[in-house]
Design brief:
Helix 3 packs across helix 4. A hairpin with a 2-residue loop joins strand 1 and strand 2. This protein has a two-stranded antiparallel ribbon with strand order 1-2. The protein has eight helices and two strands; from the N terminus they run ααααααββαα. The longest helix has about 35 residues. It is mostly helical. It starts with a helix and ends with a helix.
């Protein structure tokens, strides 16, 4: 994973994870939304490549992502009006992450399979993030339902002040930093192992 991918993860994290509620149920909705938007926008970008839009290409892509987001929101309202109302403006944050993935940091217009693969990697990171924040911050594991969210309670997070911190925005920022530090540590160790293996093969 190169530095550009790290920048994508950090930008997408601050655009989506920190601003969203720390419940896994809402996180699952946002993750599904983001992956659908990535797949739809990457497919639309492949279609747009056939035409000469020039500098207007990014504008056309942004308009399409906004349209797809509004469509997803309407479908979500049909499934669960409570979740759609609770998410509020946060539901419009995944397009920011999608635009970062496909246009700002991308060296070229990604193919649908490439874009979806990057999105799934980030989704795994986001899923762990929302899981930890829900469990540590609220003592629960929640899931979306038509009438709101359901939850399985494991402990009372209010009895542990440090755990309840993760339910707040500062706690989310702290968790992002910890997750990124762990990711960087694992990547550094993998690079050391690959380098040592390469030197052994040369020797």
């Amino acid at each position: 994973m190169n530095k550009r991918i790290y920048f994508i993860f950090i930008a997408a994290s601050f655009a989506l994870l920190v601003s969203a509620s720390g419940r896994l149920a809402y996180g699952l909705v946002l993750i599904v939304e983001m992956n659908l938007l990535v797949l739809a926008s990457a497919s639309f970008a492949a279609f747009v490549r056939r035409f000469e839009f020039g500098n207007l290409r990014k504008v056309v892509m942004l308009l399409f992502v906004i349209f797809a987001t509004v469509l997803f929101r309407q479908i979500l309202i049909l499934f669960s009006p409570v979740i759609a109302l609770t998410l509020g403006f946060v539901i419009f944050l995944p397009p920011v992450s999608v635009f970062l993935f496909g246009n700002v940091f991308a060296e070229r217009t990604p193919y649908p399979s490439d874009a979806l693969r990057q999105s799934l990697v980030f989704s795994a990171f986001a899923l762990v993030f929302f899981f930890l924040r829900d469990l540590l911050g609220f003592g629960t594991i929640s899931f979306p339902m038509p009438n709101g969210i359901g939850e399985a309670r494991f402990f009372d997070a209010r009895s542990t002040a440090f755990c309840s911190l993760f339910a707040s925005v500062p706690g989310a920022l702290l968790l992002v930093v910890l997750c990124m530090a762990a990711l960087l540590t694992v990547q550094r160790k993998m690079n050391i192992i690959e380098k040592s293996e390469g030197e052994y093969e040369i020797g």
